[in-house]
Amino acid sequence: MIFEPLASDFYGFESLLTAPEQEAIARLRAWAETEAKPIVNEYWERAEFPKHLITPLLELDVARWAWPETTPFENSAVFRGLASMELSRIDASISTFVGVQDGLTMGSISECGSQEQQDEWLPKLASGEVLGAFGLTEPQSGSDSAQGLRTTATRDGDEWILSGSKRWIGNATFSDITIIWAKDTADGQVKGFIVPTDSPGYSATKIEGKISLRMVQNADITLEDVRVPERLRLQHANSFRDTAKVLRLTRAGVAWSSVGVAVGAYEAAVAYAKERVQFGKPIAGHQLIQDLLSKCLGNITASMAMCVRVSQMLDEGTQRDEHSALAKAFCTARMRETVAWAREIMGGNGIVLDYHAARFFADAEALYSYEGTREMNALIVGRAITGTAAFV
Questions:
Q1: Would you give the DSSP letter of residue 149?
Q2: Which of 120, 116, 164 shows the shortest CA–CA distance to 139?
Q3: Residue 119, exposed/middle/buried by CB under 10 A (0-12, 13-18, 19+)?
Q4: For position 72, what pLDDT does the model report?
Q5: Which positions fall inside the Acyl-CoA dehydrogenase/oxidase C-terminal domain (predicted)?
Q6: What end-to-end distance do the CA atoms of the chain give, in Å?
Q7: Which residues of 223-258 are buried (b: 16+ CB within 10 A; e: fewer)?
Q8: Exposed, middle or buried by CB within 10 Å (0-12, 13-18, 19+), for 384?
Q9: What is the pLDDT of residue 392?
Q10: Do 357 and 343 meet the contact criterion of CB atoms below 8 Å apart?
Q11: Looking at the structure, do residues 263 and 188 belong to the same domain, yes or no?
Q12: What DSSP string describes 268-285?
């Protein structure tokens, strides 16, 4: 399949990809344009996830790119980021599904699981035989998860008893397993568990009434004395530091996704500007419209450059928490500006799903907040700058 770079990749970052990586992006782009894009507005409006897309999506190996145990070919973090961007420029909910399945669920097992757990679960998750979710956030614990986690885990022989609740858990209405993070009542440390969702005492209820990422099936999870065998405890998750390893990897992925959302809105605005005629000519020929488009492209290009470098640092083994935190904070803020300008270019039509910008505009709000708010990520960066933590 012929790879054609995006016009919105103004500085040609996709040229950094190897030939096999470019071929994989081309396949993903073709699938997303033909299979996903025509239906996303309908499913977004109905607040449903198009489950029929899961199997063909995973057949593109989108949940195999990050982990050596399952990867189909040697690939770079830049490639994985551009793949996330590619899905997000079509729809952020589809990208979020992959981020939960691949980054958070598979990432937890890859980073914190034993070799036996990796061998058992990663291939099943990569193929879609098993669907996963990631349960960290709670009704009363979001930004303070490191200290404020209320879900408990109590050892009882060869089992653990989990009690508590989780909130905003993506994919959780249809997942087969959920990675549950809970505080050990014996030592007060956070530990991780692979919890089958058919376990007695486990329930997930869809969160209704969302105005953002409406296709993502977020759920409230209740754990009422759920018994989990020791073999399903993530063997290398012994404190929140281990949880943070997973979040560091996925936070950069959210930065890439935010670039994709900005690109999607920008591309919709460019197409609209070329077709919409006012005062006798397409509005693309008006100075103020060109000014907004150039500002959109500037935000996109700067954000893409930052994401590329953060991904390169991940491959080099030099990326630290503050690097991914700065990318997440900066790129989501620039995304927020960009989707607003794209909607502005469309005038009243910008609030209608038919023109796509409205969906990107709404979805941007969720990306701006999850995986650490801008303020929390700024404090991670601030700690690195000053050597002093200012979280409380």
A1: -
A2: 164
A3: exposed
A4: 62
A5: 243-385
A6: 52
A7: beebebeeebbbbebeebebbebbbbbbbbbbbbbb
A8: middle
A9: 79
A10: yes
A11: no
A12: HHHHHHHH-EETTEEGGG
Question: Are residues 191 and 254 located together in one domain of the fold?
Answer: no
Whether residues 137 and 85 share a domain: the answer is no
The two structure tokens encoding residue 75: 């690939």
CA distance linking residue 112 with residue 100, whole number of Å: 16
Q: How far apart are CA 211 and CA 369, in angstroms?
A: 13
The verdict on 193 and 266 lying in the same domain is no
Are both 35 and 112 inside the same structural domain? yes
301's CB contacts (< 8 A; 6+ apart) are 10, 11
Buried residues in 280-302 as b, exposed as e (16+ CB within 10 A): eeebbeeeebeebbeebbebbbe
The CB-based long-range contact list for 379-382 (8 Å cut-off, 24+ gap) reads: 380/321, 380/322, 380/325, 381/322, 381/325, 381/326, 381/329
Rounded-to-integer distance, Cα 343 and Cα 269, Å: 7
Q: Are residues 178 and 265 in the same domain?
A: no
- Strands 177-184, 132-135: pairing is parallel
Which residue type does 352 have?
V
For residue 102 the two structure tokens come to 């691949």
Residue 183 phi, psi (nearest 5): -90, 125
pTM above 0.70, yes or no: yes
Q: Which amino acid is residue 336, in one-letter code? A: R
Successive 10-residue mean pLDDT values, the chain, 392 residues? 88 93 93 96 96 92 66 79 94 94 91 94 92 93 74 96 96 96 94 97 96 96 97 94 84 92 97 95 96 98 97 91 94 97 96 95 94 89 95 82
Whether residue 6 is contained in a domain is answered as no
Give the model's pLDDT for residue 143.
67
Contacts 24+ apart (CB under 8 A), 30-39: 30/1, 31/56, 31/57, 31/60, 32/86, 32/87, 32/90, 32/94, 33/90, 36/90, 36/91, 36/94, 37/90, 37/91
